[in-house]
Design a protein that fits this description.
This protein has one domain. It has 1 helix and 4 strands, in the order H-E-E-E-E.
Length: 107
């Protein structure tokens, strides 16, 4: 499963009362989904495993999150959340679709 690191120092659109700007492709959608979800659920994001345009002109992003960090790291509990973004990058909704141990293999 390919992961894209979702950490960046770029400011998020819409802060400080400015108008939200249109999402500029898959990388921008992944960054916005990761930041927005992290703010809402209070967990560190690990990366994005899928980014696809949604049928309703927005984006659907699968964001991987560390829900329970453990030592050793291979026993940490992670989850994948499906995040829906509007064209302007605002988070419209999310849901947890999977929870797993970091060391677990997909079947």
């Amino acid at each position: 499963m390919a992961e894209q690191r979702a950490r960046s120092s770029k400011p998020t659109a819409g802060r400080g009362g400015s108008r939200a700007t249109r999402v500029k492709g898959a990388e921008d959608a992944a960054l916005r989904a990761s930041r927005g979800l992290s703010k809402l659920i209070g967990h560190e994001t690990e990366g994005c495993s899928e980014v696809t345009p949604a049928d309703d002109h927005g984006w659907r992003v699968a964001v991987d999150v560390v829900e329970v960090p453990r030592i050793p790291d291979t026993t940490s509990l992670l989850a994948t959340y499906e995040v829906d973004l509007a064209d302007d990058g605002t988070l419209r909704g999310y849901r947890r679709v999977r929870r797993y141990r970091r060391g677990a293999v997909d079947t």
